[in-house]
Amino acid sequence: MRFKDRAEAGQKLARLLATTYEHEEGVVYALPRGGVVLGAEIALRLHMPLDLIVARKIGHPYNPEYAIGAVTEGGEPVVNADEVARVPSGWFHAQVAAERREARRRHHVYLDGRAPLSSHGKTAIIVDDGIATGLTMEAAIRELRRRDSARIVVAVPVVPADTATTFAREVDELVALDIPEYYLGGVGAYYEYFPQVTDEEVIALLRRVNGTVTASQT
Predict the structure, then answer these.
(1) What is the tens place of the pLDDT at every residue in 51-102?
(2) Residue 135 has pLDDT above 80, yes or no
(3) Residues 90, 94, 98, CA angle at the centre, nearest 5°?
(4) How far, CA to CA in Å, does 152 sit from each of 51, 113, 125, 191?
(5) 3-class secondary structure, 9
(6) Checking DSSP bridges between strand 26-30 and strand 123-127, what pairing results, if any?
(7) Which end of the chain has fewer CB atoms within 10 angstroms, the N or the C?
(8) Which of 152, 158, 141, 200 is nearest to 6 (CA)?
């Protein structure tokens, strides 16, 4: 399955999620930057606020696109233990610290310093534009567990079959549009148009969605 762009993928996911979660008390948490485009479509359809989980990939020193770990602003990093064992420990710890600082910086920039929205006792829907290794999504799931969410749902357009099986055991529901046995190697391969999403676009989407949702609830 291929998607025209992130907005189309988000709209298709939103329709699927609406059968269960429309008007339910919850929060949509997007992984920036690409996931925010999809998260905006889903939050508007479900009448939920849109927030962020800033999870940062730790790439292999010789192939930065290949994730061997991931980290959010707090908590322990999620790692591919076999790969991490093969890289210098000092380098890895330095990367964890650097990516955690970057996660905090992005949170401040995107949300203008405001605290994360609480998912305590609510449904938390985690959205990204696709899953490859699954490490950044795993970091996001752990972050939401620490916040005592009542229910955790992962919503993505595409996820490899083996990763889908793993996540289906870890969350209350995995919602995906395509779960290929033979993964094409990168999320962008499943989109016709897959540009970088800018910081300015993230900020604008958050403001537009949350302004619309707040207005509809008053």
Answers:
(1) 999 999 999 999 988 889 999 988 789 999 999 999 999 999 999 999 999 9
(2) yes
(3) 170
(4) 14, 25, 6, 26
(5) helix
(6) parallel
(7) C
(8) 158
State the Cα–Cα distance between residues 105 and 98, nearest whole angstrom: 11
Would strands 151-158 and 173-178 be described as parallel, antiparallel, or unpaired? Answer: parallel
Residue with tokens 């995906």: 176
Residues constituting the chain: 218
User: Which pair of tokens denotes residue 65?
Assistant: 């696109």
In angstroms, the CA 154 to CA 3 distance is 19
Query: Residue type at 134?
Result: G
Residues 6+ apart with CB under 8 A from 20: 173
The tokens describing 182, both together, are 């033979």
- Check pLDDT > 90 for residue 36: yes
Question: Which of 20-29, 38-47, 206-215 shows the lowest per-residue confidence on average (mean pLDDT)?
Answer: 206-215
Return the structure tokens found at 184: 């094409």
The first and second tokens of residue 139, run together, are 């970091």
Q: For 156-172, what is each residue's pLDDT tens digit?
A: 999 999 999 999 999 99
CA-angle at 11, arms to 10 and 16, nearest 5°? 95
The total of other beta-carbon atoms located within 10 Å of residue 86's CB is 10
Tokens of 68: 């061997």
Per-residue model confidence (pLDDT) at position 114: 86
Residue in 99, 108, 121 with CA at minimum distance from that of residue 52: 108
